[in-house]
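Could someone model guanosine-5'-diphosphate with this protein?
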Amino acid sequence: MEHVLIIVGIAVVVAGGAGAIAVPLVRRRGEGAAGQPGAGSGRAGTGTAERGQARPGAPEAGAQGPGGGIGTLPPAPAGPTAGTAPPEVERPLPSAGRLARLRGRLARSQTALGSALLSLLSSGKFDEDTWDEIEEILITADMGATPARELVDQLRTEVKVAGTRDPAQVRSLLRADLLVQVRPDLDRTLHTAPHGDRPGVVLMVGVNGTGKTTACGKLARVLIGDGGTVLLGAADTFRAAAADQLETWGSRVGATVVRADREGADPASVAFEAVTAGIADGVDTVIVDTAGRLHTKTGLMDELGKIKRVIAKHATVDEVLLVLDATTGQNGLRQARVFAEVVDITGIVLTKLDGTAKGGIVIAVQRELGVPVKLVGLGEGPDDLAPFEPEMFVDALLGD
Ligand code: GDP
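Reply:
Sure, complex below.
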């Protein structure tokens, strides 16, 4: 029997532009009785001036799932449930300038690295020991042995050629060399835009505990803040808590969440349903959270491969974002390697950069995978996820 998928949505009444009243709608997919009203999508997101918001109590359409059996939906309540205040739907600020806002957190944890480097460089004593120490500091910051050696060799040559001992000049050479290693040339565009009537699809992958589910919720806020509409798919079916967490994220910003009703349901099926609902709803982007169990490489490959294949029946997977915890160093890099072997990663979300002085991991992981860090997590707050900006990152590293 096809398992039941639950769609939780928020319908919003926009009252004369004076704010929003949210009406919670809970819908079940797969169990709706035939003949119930509505031939629509069952998501918050159609029929009103603003996409992603639905009329309260409006009949909604039922999307067709793989078994053709996503039933129609029970009618939505006509208004807020008596006695319970409807949740306010938040409108996050646009993502532009976020890293600038969060830069203090980056600087706080990274300046140890910057000041150690700068104090060595401003000593004006450029002997073997000094260069060795500089290399060691870079390696300690998780930059990786090869990039650290390259940077030191480069800087050493430049200092020699310039014949300078001026701390300001040496510092600006260091800044330029660090920037080269952070690769400002990489394309960090997040591909989340719809293709005609098909939503952009983002798969979030990574090991449990890295901040993967949180990253899905935060990314939804980024996209909604930038004017898009989002549907979340809770395909981490091994942890009910992850789906609950996504629902909380979704309800705060009025994003529909598609989830299974039981632990252990087929993740690919949830992903399929999420994309199906996303198409029916006309959302811009579907973000799919996946299970983060690093059981066996083959198991992971099968699971992620199947998810990608079923989604491809309907839409294109535009981004596969690997979530890595910046505080886990070599262990994180090992995880990255495994994921890169089983799925084509298009970008990295580096979380918990606020909690480590080891910002060099940005350089190491990009080099390891050959894909750019696109987003960085800088705290536990809902809007503490920012598009990565190399220049600002290097400046924060050097304590500018
Ligand atoms: P998952 O198991 O990978 O889905 O991880 P969760 O999304 O549940 O997050 C695990 C923990 O990491 C939670 O307590 C999050 O609040 C925390 N977390 C996630 N991202 C960040 C971040 O950028 N900075 C900090 N300090 N904590 C984070």
